[in-house]
Each structure stands twice: as C-alpha cells, then as structure tokens.
C-alpha cells in the first residue's frame, strides 16, 4: 500500500522543499522504501535539489516533466503525447539501492500554465498518480507556496498533509488561512477522512530568541485549538541545509553537517510514521526492512 503526503504551506520559504526532499531521501536510504518525490512547484526547486541543470535539461527534452503529464495544450512547447502514454518515462531515478528506488517526477516553469488555466485540473494529479503510485511505499508531493489550483490538485491526490512552518509572526497569521483552505476542501469532499493533517513541523529554528519562543508557544495554542499535532522533532536552522542543496546530497550525507540536523530528519520521519499509524488504525506496512 502506498501513502501520498503533500508538504503544504502557502507561506513561502518555510522549508517545504528541504523537508520533502530530505524525507524522501531518508525513507529510501535509511528505511529501504520505494519512494517517489513529485515536484508540483513551477519554481522546480525540488528538481534542482536532486538534478544538476544539464541533466534536467536533457531529461526535460527527452523524457518530459510533470507539466507534460498534466497539461493538454498542443500550442505549448511540451512533449506531451509520447510522455502521456507512459508516465513512468518522465521519472528520473535519483538513486536505486537493493532493488529499492528513489525517483522524482520533475517539474518546470511551464507548469505555471496550470495556474492560469485551472479548468478541469482538480483531479489530474490524482489520476496521474493512480497510474504509478503502487510502485512506491511513499509519495511525497512538494507544493508551491501559493493557494492555486495546484494546491487543490495536491489536496485531491493526497492521503495526508505535513505542514512545515517557521516559528515567526507571519506563520501564525498564515496558519489560520491554511487551516481554512484545508477545511473548505474537506467540507466539499465526499470522504470526511480525506487528507488528514499529520501535523506541523517547525523548521529553521534558531533556539536563540525570545520572540521565536513566543511564536512557537502561540502556534502551539493555535494548533491545539484546531486539533492539529505539533511534531516534537524540529529542523534547527543550519547552514548544512544550504550546503546540502549546493552539493545535491541529503543532509545526512552532507560533509561537516552537525549531528543534530543529520538526525532531525530521521526523528521527523519516525513521528510521521507514528502519525500515519494513528490515522490509518493499522501500521502502514511498506515493503522495506522496517515493515
Ligand atoms: N533548517 C534550515 N536551516 C537553514 N536553512 C534552511 C533550512 N531549511 C531550509 N533552508 C533554506 O531556506 C531556503 C528556503 O527553503 P525551501 O526552499 O525548502 O523552502 P520552501 O518552503 O520550499 O520555499 P518556497 O515556498 O519558495 O517553495 C532555502 O535556501 C533552504 O536551503
Ligand atoms: Mg519549495
């Protein structure tokens, strides 16, 4: 059984991509799972995190991207027909160990077309993933920082949401909007258990300022009111994350990274599995070694 988790927060720069990519790497490398990372952001930062630009350009031309799979628009410079018949052809293999795969469905700037032309898009990602998700134990969707049809597509395609959040004033204000968006979506869903919120993960925590602590306390009380879990593990602010982007490696393989950021992703992954277990009522049983 496969689970699809979207990393969502309409606030920009909160660490969605960093956490999505590192969780995907962790689940593959450390938990021996088959993992798919879906880049649903026209900024295509997740794609840039794991592919160098030259490789991306070649892949885009020869194999296509998520934009090719989602968009029906012959006037666009997309390579649709060939790719549409076989979505697996658009996947890029990041790594493969012991027969387990870590793939990305890359994005590109052209995906922004969807935002300007949202008609009949809501279910396209869900339908696309239905064709490939059973190849994987986990599918992580990296969402853009805007409330657009791409958000609706991610919500429709997901079993769960994970909310990365920076502990600051803007995040507290943004949290209310985010919860409103999720509630509105769920109210319009036939399934009341569609897209459960696994919780909030604090990111870029410096641990050095009173105002940050106040923001965390305030968010904790807002989250409690909304019955939203706050993960006890968090990602501290660390230059190693910036280095890991530069080196296109997971944080736990980044040279000179301290133990804390290296182990934090694993701890967040443990909480994530426990939360999925809580919601699903039975242990999610990936085919990996921890099953
Ligand atoms: N824990 C961290 N410590 C230090 N820097 C971080 C951390 N997490 C992310 N960053 C850096 O912060 C910037 C924003 O992170 P990221 O791109 O993951 O956020 P995002 O929410 O995906 O942004 P967007 O909303 O634009 O998609 C990046 O330069 C990233 O390297
Ligand atoms: Mg991002």
Descriptive overview:
With 291 residues, the chain is of the alpha/beta class. The chain has one domain (3-279): Rossmann fold. Helix content is 44%, strand content 14%. The chain contains 12 helices and 7 strands. The chain has helices spanning 16-29, 45-50, 53-62, 66-70, 80-84, 112-116, 124-130, 149-157, 169-187, 210-225, 239-247, 259-280, and strands spanning 3-7, 35-39, 92-97, 100-105, 138-142, 160-165, 196-202. It has a 7-stranded mixed β-sheet, with helices on both faces. A hairpin with a 2-residue loop joins strand 3 and strand 4 (100-105). Helix 1 (16-29) crosses helix 12 (259-280) and helix 7 (124-130) runs parallel beside helix 8. The longest helix has 22 residues, at 259-280. It is globular and about 55 Å long. Magnesium ion is lined by residues 16-17, 41, 45, 142.
Please give the order of strands in the largest beta sheet: 3-4-2-5-1-6-7
Major β-sheet annotation: 7 strands, mixed
How widely separated are the two ends? Answer: 12 Å
Rg computed from alpha carbons, rounded to a whole number of angstroms: 18 Å
Helical residue percent band: 40-55%
What ligand species are in this complex? adenosine-5'-triphosphate, magnesium ion
CATH superfamily grouping = P-loop containing nucleotide triphosphate hydrolases
Q: How many DSSP H or I helices?
A: 12
Shape: globular
Strand percent estimate: 5-15%
Q: Got a strand count?
A: 7
Number of domains: 1
Would you identify the regions where 5 or more consecutive residues have pLDDT less than 50?
none
Assign the CATH topology. Rossmann fold
Instruction: Kindly provide the name of the CATH class.
Output: Alpha Beta
């Amino acid at each position: 059984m496969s689970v699809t988790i979207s990393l969502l927060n309409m606030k920009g720069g909160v660490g969605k991509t960093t956490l999505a990519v590192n969780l995907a790497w962790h689940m593959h490398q450390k938990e021996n799972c088959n993992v798919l990372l879906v880049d649903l952001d026209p900024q295509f930062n997740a794609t840039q995190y794991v592919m160098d630009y030259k490789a991306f350009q070649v892949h885009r031309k020869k194999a296509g991207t998520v934009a090719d799979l989602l968009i029906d628009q012959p006037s666009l410079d997309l390579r649709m027909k060939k790719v549409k018949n076989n979505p697996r052809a658009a996947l890029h293999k990041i790594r493969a160990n012991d027969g387990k795969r870590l793939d990305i469905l890359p994005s590109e700037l052209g995906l922004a077309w969807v935002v300007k032309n949202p008609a009949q898009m809501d279910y396209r990602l869900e339908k696309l993933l239905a064709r490939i998700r059973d190849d994987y134990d986990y599918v992580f969707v990296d969402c853009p920082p805007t409330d657009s049809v791409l958000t609706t597509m991610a919500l429709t395609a997901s079993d769960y949401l994970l909310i990365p959040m920076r502990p600051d004033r803007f995040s507290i204000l943004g949290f209310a909007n985010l919860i409103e968006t999720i509630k509105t979506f769920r109210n319009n869903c036939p399934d009341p258990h569609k897209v459960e919120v696994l919780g909030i993960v604090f990111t870029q925590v410096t641990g050095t300022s009173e105002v940050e602590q106040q923001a965390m306390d305030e968010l904790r009380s807002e989250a409690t009111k909304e019955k939203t879990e706050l993960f006890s593990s968090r990602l501290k602010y660390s230059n190693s994350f910036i280095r890991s982007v530069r080196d296109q490696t997971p944080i736990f393989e980044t040279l000179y990274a301290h133990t804390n950021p290296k182990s934090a992703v694993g701890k967040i992954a443990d909480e994530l599995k426990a939360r999925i277990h809580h919601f699903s009522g039975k242990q999610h049983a990936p085919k990996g070694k921890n099953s």
